[in-house]
Write a structure and sequence with these properties.
- There is one protein chain.
- The protein is of the alpha+beta class.
- The chain is globular.
- It has 1 helix and 6 strands.
């Protein structure tokens, strides 16, 4: 049997609910918990990162898609 796995959670940046692949989504550990970031927040963060000379955050392929079980 095959299936799909996805997580639903609140974005650590904007607090909106979104679905993601829990193994691939960009995240940070905050207060001991892995917190995911939605694609909108990643896209907002990247220009700020560039201004500071930091590399962009590039989500892994499938980060916002269901994972195969």
């Amino acid at each position: 049997m095959s299936g799909f796995i996805f997580a639903t959670g609140m974005c650590a940046g904007c607090r909106r609910l979104f679905s993601f692949n829990p193994e691939l989504v960009p995240s940070l550990t905050i207060n001991g918990h892995r917190e995911p970031f939605c694609l909108d927040c990643i896209e907002l963060a990247n220009p700020r990162r560039a201004e500071k000379g930091l590399p962009p955050i590039v989500p892994l392929p499938g980060a916002y898609e269901p994972a195969e079980a």
